[in-house]
Every structure is written in C-alpha cells, then in structure tokens.
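[Q] Does anyone have a clean structure-token version of this?
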Amino acid sequence: MAKQENSVTDDPVRQGAPLGADEVRLPIQYFRDFFDADLLGSIVEQSNLYCTQQNQNCALKLDQNELEQFIGTVVYMSVLHLPRPRMYWSSACRVSQVADVMSRDRWEEIIHFIHFNDNMAPNNGDRLFKVRSLIDSLLPKFQALPQAQMLSVDEQMVPFKGRSSLKQYIPEKPYKWGYKIFVLCDTEGLVHSFDIFAGKIGPAPGHPDIGASGNIVLKLAQDIHDAANHLLCFDNRFSSLDLFVALANKGIPALGTVQQSCLKGCSFSEDTEIKKKRRGTFEEQQVDVDNVEIRAVKWFDNSGVIVASTFASAWPVSNIERWDRKLKKKVSVECPGIISLYTKFMGGVDALDALIADYRIHIRSKKYYHRFFFHFVDMVIVNSWLLYRRDCESLSVPRKKQMDLLAFRTSIAQALCMQGKDLSKNKRGPPSSDVEREFEKKKRRGPAKAIPTQEVRSDAVGHWPVVERERQRCKFPNCKGQTVFKCAKCNVHLCLNKNKNCFREFHE
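[A] Here you go.
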C-alpha cells in the first residue's frame, strides 16, 4: 500500500496516578504486602487441620512465626541450590542459614502437612480447589497495583513433569511440560493479574464467546484500570478480529501479531514474492469490522510477520540495524512503526520467567499444590523487587545503590527466618565456621554491610548480650570502640558499659 501520512494515529496519553511512592521500604515490607497476616493465618489453620484429619493422635502445632521461618528456609534453598533438602542439615554440607533455623525433621513435617484448603469442604468441581484460597488472597493484591501504560497478555509455564490432569505441553517454552498460567503484566514483568488454565475457558462475564484464546484475554482485560489510558498487546495465539473488536468496544487499544487466515478482507503478498524485494519491505491493509477500524501491516525481515492494531499503523517508519549474512556486516533496514511498538510491548512475561528462573524454588513433590505454592512465592518476590525498583527510580536512587534480585531475595529470607524468633534457643549442632565470614569488617565510617534489617533489630525477641573471648570493633555507626559483648541473635559486637550503651541504641 502507498504511504499514508493521514493514517498515523497518536498513542493514547496516560492520565493515571503516578507509579512511585514517598519512600523506599525494606524488602520484607514489600513481601508482606502479598503474604500478609491473614494469608499466613489461613495456611496455619488449614495445615493444622489437615494434620489432625490425617491422624487424630498427632498435632502439627504450627504457628505463624514458624510458617514464616519455613518459608524463609525455602527461599534460602532457592539461592544456595543443594541437590537434596536433607543436605542442608548434613555434616558434610551443613548450611547454618537453614540448619540453625529449625531441625530437619521439623522442616520435613511441615512440608508434609502444609495445606491451603479443607479437604472435607465441597469443591463444586473446582480443579484448583486445593490452592483456591491462595489464588483468592493473592489475585486482588496483584490487581490493585498501579499499572503502567503498556500491558501484555501471554502464557507462563510452571515446570512439572509428574502425573497430573492439569499438566500441559507447550513446545515453544523453555519448560515444555507443566501447569499453564495466563498472565497480564507490564513490560518489566510486573504481574497485575493471572488465570490458571484448568480446562475449558468460557466467555468472560458480559461478553460473547469468541473462542478460548480470545475469552482469556477479555477476562484478564477486565482488571485493567481506566482502560482508555492503557495499551494491550498479545501474540498470534490469542489474536482474532473478534478480539480486536471486543477490546475496542471496551475502550482498550490493542496490538498483536496475527495469522493471515484470521484477517478476512485483507490480502497480502506471499513470502516468496516479498523476498524478491529488498529487506524491510512492508505492506499495509485496512479493514472495518462492526465500525472498528483495524490496520494490519506485513513486514519482511528474515521472514514475513503480520501485526494488526486498532490504534497504530505502519508510519512513522524508522531504520534499524540487522546482520546481513551475505555481506557479513550490519545493514540498515526499514521498520514500520507498528512493528517497533510490538517489539517494545511484548516480552513482559518472558522477562518475568527469566527473573523467576534465576532463583526458582526447586523442591520436588508429587503434590501439585506444593508446586503452585512455591511458584507463587517466587512470583511475589519478583513482583516485590520490581515494585522496589519502581520506587527507587521514582525517588532517583542511583542504580548502584539499589539491591539486585539476589540481595533482595536474601534479605527477605533473612527477615523471615529471624523476625520475632529467638534463634539462640533453637540452635542445634556445632557452631558454623562461616558465621564470622557472614559479616565483613566495619568500614571506617558507618556499620558493616551485612547486619540484620531494622525490623529484626527492633523486634525485642532473643537479643541477649553474650561475652566473647576476643574483642572486636563495635558495629554501631560512628563508634570506634572495641568490646567483648555481642548480640546472640544479630551476631554483631556492640559496646555495653557504664560510658556507652551501643547495644540498646542498636536495637531501638
């Protein structure tokens, strides 16, 4: 199609609330926004009930503090990655961050009986009955998060190869076997909504049935705040003209790759014909369906790709660099504006998958709800880190002073293991030789880097002064004194004498 300057459509302008916050909080505080006291209390109640149902003469006696402790050890395991859980307590590979928190037998008892719903309650044919309470608790918290302008819908796989009627096979994914989740997220991977595939996908409430792939997009699109100020993107597994029309009627501008067979009324040249022309050749077509204008552009790079949209077009055209195998150098190739937008849009779920895969919780279990629970813990930690990054950017915190995902995840694990617990009473086995290595030497100004978080220092539980043989520098900021006293829980040396009481000030 010839160039059409008047076919350019301006992107919708965002008018929503700002995405930042007034302050950057501690990692554990972001985590507790999702795993709050109500959710933890429900897990404790159902786990104790399940243990009683299995054996009336046995009581699990799990409480909320111990559940947090258990989750903290699991998060530590995702960072340290030993092949078997029992190795964290073994004499050869003992890890104090896990082994000092709880005994091996108690950890195995908790993972055996951890539960999320009453087995005796009617399930009404719900195939996700055992994790329904987790979904009902976490989903509204994801949906309430402030949303960026660009959103996308894609599939996510929860890896699992065991026997399960919910297991799916998607050959294009890095993990081909597992549970399929449809996710609504932004370009960074921040999750705003999700829906677990459990069989037939019916139409979204108040919408016609446009097929399973279109129905799930409409269902997730219901969670978009102020729809006209957001742009929704998806790939050809979901695209259809009916979906573009349904989203336009809801006021949501949409963009996505499509198959030629789905574009009734649009005819493009075959790939063999376009290939004879120069690289970067494109064609643009327009079709009106139920008074909704849809533009489709076919662009040839290494192969042909078709992208359709209700708001974007081929123009403006930009130039991008591509490697030419014949010339063995980079060449400039024309790229339509709609293609550039799609490249900018998509990839949010892939980014989420990559962040989760870095430190995924790998604990083998035949119970499918265990796999979902650990996946939700991973998803919440990644969401928390992305929110932390968003707050840091809004407050202009330099990137070098921001925690990376590993440091953020370790901070959450440490806070969960230590918050409100007196670990000095539960310590088992010989003292670890790595404890002293955990804290670096104090700098000339300020405390050492690796000290417990403020919530741990001020929880008023288990902070007992003990006397060491060797003196060390006081870890309180701006104190240059040396002392033999240290905190049994925080494991840091602090002054405690008639002239100085750094011990009290450190824990206030």
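[Q] Thanks! Anything notable?
[A] The first strand starts at residue 150 and ends at 159.
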